[in-house]
Amino acid sequence: MKIELISPNVEDAWFWHQVRTQETTQRFNNMGVLDLDRLKIKLAESNRDISVKQQAHRYFVQVNDIEFAGVIAIRDIDWESGVCDLGYLIAEKYHNQGIATRAVALILEKAFEQGKLRKIKAITAVSNVASYRVLQKNGFSLEGSLKEELLIAGRPQDAYLWGLTSDDFRTGSRSDIWRKSAFFITTDKKQLQLSRIHRFLSQEAYWCLGIPSSVVARSIENSICFGLYDQDKNAIRQIGYARLVTDQSTFAWLCDIYIEQPYRGRGLSKWLMECIMSSRYVQGLRRICLATKDGHSLYEKYGFKVTDTPANWMEIKYYDVYKKLNAEPTNANPPP
């Protein structure tokens, strides 16, 4: 399917009006009331290409050269600071076909490469999972939660704030963050507290008792890690952890999941799993696996089940590998 962004004619405002009034648009967005004439005016103010700097640049998403599939825009552009907001709407008949993801990718290229913008922000309703997954697939990081930010159908709704910088767009270097009260979860490895992770894994985790600190450090380096933190005005303490071993294309192994004992019973393990399973790292994978002795009821809530083909699985397991590592001298020939 060919997907491209075109600068619309004012006469095409009927399509924008049609998409704004569809049921899914109204359910997740505060659209306000704009009649067709007002939409034509706004379109005339924003339908020139980004090479001509306007406060907003709006495009129609066209498929196969013949039909409109959606509307996408960067708006509230501060050309001096290089910051703007992103918004997009896709016609219902084109949902779940990857069109929104591709359209966002196309407008990011225009904004960062042609417009030389520095940062793009977006806001999604917390309930609008499909929309924020589009952002995640395009590299946006979750920057925070906004209490009652949106007014949808007369009811205040919480929202997520997302952001993507030009540097992260070009290098692919970015981390995600989720917040809840005094707690936050992030994939930023710089935040990880190795000594706390090692203490728990080596002393309390039944699956890897005695694991050396150097092995933990190497596992972090080669995994996508989710750190859970308790933050107050005096300190940030890491109180939970999980990591994904994945090719980010077909398969992921979820492991080393824990919450420190004093913080259990607060719903934090559920929140950690929600963040992992909604993250961009697991979208579109064919298989996600984990192993557990007693956590089945937790993981079943997120789609995991005991494999129905155990005879198909094989493994090599070295039960005493860490005992051997810890017994080995650090220097075979120490100086006198």
Q: Top keywords for this entry?
A:
336 residues, alpha+beta, Aminopeptidase, 6-stranded mixed beta sheet, 11 helices, 29% helix, elongated
- Major sheet: 7 strands, mixed
Could you give the distance between the termini?
72 Å
Structural class: alpha+beta
CATH class descriptor name of the domain at 181-329: Alpha Beta
Order of helices and strands: EHHHEEEHEHEEHEEHHEEEHEHH
**Order of strands, widest sheet:** 1-2-3-4-5-7-6
| Rg for CA atoms | 24 Å
* E-strand count: 13
> Treating each run of at least 4 consecutive H or I residues as one helix, how many helices?
11
Verbal overview:
The protein has helices at 13-20, 23-28, 36-44, 99-114, 129-137, 166-171, 194-203, 213-221, 268-278, 296-300, 321-327; strands at 3-6, 57-63, 67-78, 83-90, 119-125, 141-152, 155-165, 177-180, 183-186, 224-231, 236-246, 251-259, 287-289. By secondary structure, the chain is an alpha+beta fold. The strands form two sheets. It has a seven-stranded mixed beta sheet with strand order 1-2-3-4-5-7-6, with helices on both faces. It has a six-stranded mixed beta sheet with strand order 8-9-10-11-12-13, sandwiched between helices. Strand 12 (251-259), helix 9 and strand 13 form a beta-alpha-beta unit. The chain has a domain at 181-329: Aminopeptidase.
